[in-house]
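step: validate -> pass
step: tokenize input -> pass
step: predict -> running
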Amino acid sequence: MANAQLALSWLLVGPSHVIPIPGTRRVSRLDEHMAAADVKLAPAQIERVEAVLGQGAAQGCRYAEAGVIGMETPNA
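step: predict -> pass
step: emit ->
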């Protein structure tokens, strides 16, 4: 199973308000992403993913300060 497929599978077993929107440039990757809907993660697998990437694991600004120079958005 590819990393993206694992991530998408994990998102699909999460809360119903979370909707994964994968992006790709290759049809083969699109097929892989779509196949994630058929992956059934075991409870132990879900627990392991959540232990590594649980709530609060991803936080902070979307862009580094240097990356927003010249952007004209109120909430970069």
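step: describe -> The chain has three helices and no strands.
step: cleanup -> pass
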